[in-house]
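Researcher: Next entry in the queue.
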Amino acid sequence: MENRGLSAGASGSHWEDEDDDDDEEEDVLPVPPLQTEISSGWRNLSAFWLLGLCNNFAYVVMLSAAHDILRTETNETSTLNISRSNNSRYDCNEISTAAVLLADILPTLIIKFSAPLYIHRIPYNYRVSLCILTAAASFLIVSYSTQISVSLLGVVFASVSSGLGEITFLSLTAFFQSDVVSFWSSGTGGAGILGSLSYLGLTLAGLSARNSLLVMLMIPALLLISYFFLMRPPSSLPRWFFPKAAETSVTDRQPLIQASASTVTDPDLTTSQKWKIIPSLLKYMIPLAIVYFAEYFINQGLYELIYFPDVSMSHSEQYRWYQMLYQAGVFVSRSSLRCVTIRRIWILSLLQCALAIFLLFGIAYLFLPSIGLPVIFLIIIFEGLLGGAAYVNSFNNIAVNSKPEHKEFSMGVACVSDTLGISLSGAIAIPVHNYFCSLP
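Model: Structure for this entry, 440 residues:
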């Protein structure tokens, strides 16, 4: 009772009696803030899961469809002719699926390398709007394409959407509680399994590759809903316009992370400051780049050469199953942060490199068919588990160990490491593919 009287006196010019105070409190009693915070918290966590799902969906689908994209469409029902080398011991497409990988990753690499120089000057709503438009364009272009070059252009649009989205949404996590990082990561893993499984399921159900891609236009629409309607951003987030620098503090950007209220975040870090931050990130970035190099060398350089001719599935169906099982492993490990945390990412990079070397020797000496398709399926799932665990734990380690005023920049710049590893693997996978396919 005494506290209520003091509160009223503090807000007015004199002390008020108990009855008047009770009446005033009944008139201005707000909605309990805890309930609002819980609701906003779950909305934001759900939004980040869906943002991760939608952001990586087109990228995953293009890789799952790579074996089909590299065929020449001959009619409106997507009847496909395969160009193979009849003299090779391997069942090869004329062009390696690594070509699709490069089209799907090089624009992302360019964006991630250049974005730290300018991305902080573009409000988030404009970035996300561009992600939505390019994702939709990618599905439309590839589905209606009749030439490989045009199809690869559609893959480039998917890459722009995914690359811009990743650096945008990872930077966006700096404005929310730290748990959104694990939900974002789990969503990207969900994109892997749902993207590859949906493409596999639709094609097995009899839909053509073209119609399967058209069905997936619902994903850009879901991205729009998740960001603009489901998410509850703080007032400090620069959505359409930037707030004044003095109004943006660490506590605004990190509402649930303890930080000094007197510390002010500088949204425009100088070039010198950025170069000083990057060396501290290398211990996370280098192992992650190695993991992704080995991982995508397997995915886009070796998968198409692992062929079991004596099973009921065609070569294209086997390739789709490889992609789906790999993404299943990724989904499980990217969703495991609340159960298992890993500090030594270099252990995962060593295991992934060992797996790539084993499969490379298996293809070179043709002993993989002797171990059976189910064993290959298990190996591929393990590969996905390693890659997903490296991703989620690397970014979690950065989020936990970065200074609050550096977190937004650190999360954005560190995501270049996986893209760099993927790009290098694609460049090497093409000559490896050509070498094996030239063998008599």
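Model: The CA atoms of residues 285 and 414 lie 6 Å apart.
Researcher: Noted, moving on.
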